[in-house]
Amino acid sequence: MEPSSQAAPPLPDHFHSPMLHAGFWQRFAAYLIDCLILIPAFFVLEFVLVIPLVAADASSTRSSSWRCLSSRSSPRSRFLPTRIT
């Protein structure tokens, strides 16, 4: 296949202009706005996802601990192998 003899189309003007970066105060203001949006969102997610999981784990741990405390066998017998008859 032969190489194309047509020249590539010129780049748009925004590729030729110098890049402008935001200054310190603009970046600081953007950071504050991000915090104002993200902190309440993460707070809501924590209540929706994390706290129910922790509460479920705590309730299952309490019930299993209570079962161990309320069992009539000695604590040592729980770790000894049992005979299968």
Write up this protein:
By secondary structure, this protein is an all-alpha fold. It has a domain at 23-55. 55% of the residues lie in helices and 0% in strands. It contains 1 helix and no strands. The protein has one helix at 24-70. The longest helix is centred in the middle third of the chain and has 47 residues, at 24-70. The termini are far apart. The model has no long low-confidence stretch (mean pLDDT 75).
Mean pLDDT metric: 75
Q: Cα distance, first to last residue? A: 83 Å
Shape: elongated
- Fraction in helix: 55-70%
| Class from helix and strand fractions | mainly alpha
The Cα radius of gyration reads 33 Å
Order of helices and strands: H
Biggest sheet features? none
User: In DSSP terms, counting alpha (H) and pi (I) runs of 4 or more, how many helices?
Assistant: 1
Poorly predicted regions are none
Strand proportion: under 5%
Count all strands and give the number. 0
Brief summary of the model shown:
By secondary structure, this protein is mainly α. Helices cover 55% and strands 0% of the residues.
List the helices and strands and how they pair.
Elements: H1 24-70
List keywords for this structure.
85 residues; mainly alpha; 1 helix; 0% strand; elongated; 55% helix
